[in-house]
Amino acid sequence: MRVEQLLGALGRSPRWVADYFLNLIGGKSTAVMTNVVGPRWPVYLCARRVHSLMFWVPQSGDIGMGVSIISYNDFVQFGVVSDRALCPDPERVTARFGAEFEKLLLTTLMSPWPRDGELDPCVAAEAVGAT
Fold this sequence. Notes:
Layout: H1 3-11, H2 15-26, E1 31-37, E2 44-45, E3 48-49, E4 65-72, E5 75-82, H3 91-94, H4 97-110, H5 121-127
Parallel strand pairs: 1-4
Antiparallel strand pairs: 2-3, 4-5
């Protein structure tokens, strides 16, 4: 069963069942990350072009960090929300997004095709002679 199916079933269950399982799952999690694919073209609201979109990943219990990723109009927006007691400096996380995304892009572009396993940055670096 996929997580989406489990959460969908919990959404149709009695409130006490959903609360029990969400608290159980939430107690074993430290972060939530979600990716939302938005439209690849501009959208309009009240005849005005929407320039960017953002959302915050839902969190519950003692989950200390939520990472939101949304694409819109061929751009990607990242957001981080955190519990100050558990992650007092989320700026350190967001400051690394650009560099880490560049590494991921290089790994993806330099990995052999067809891809049949995990993408390993070391393998990609060797492929381009950057070791």
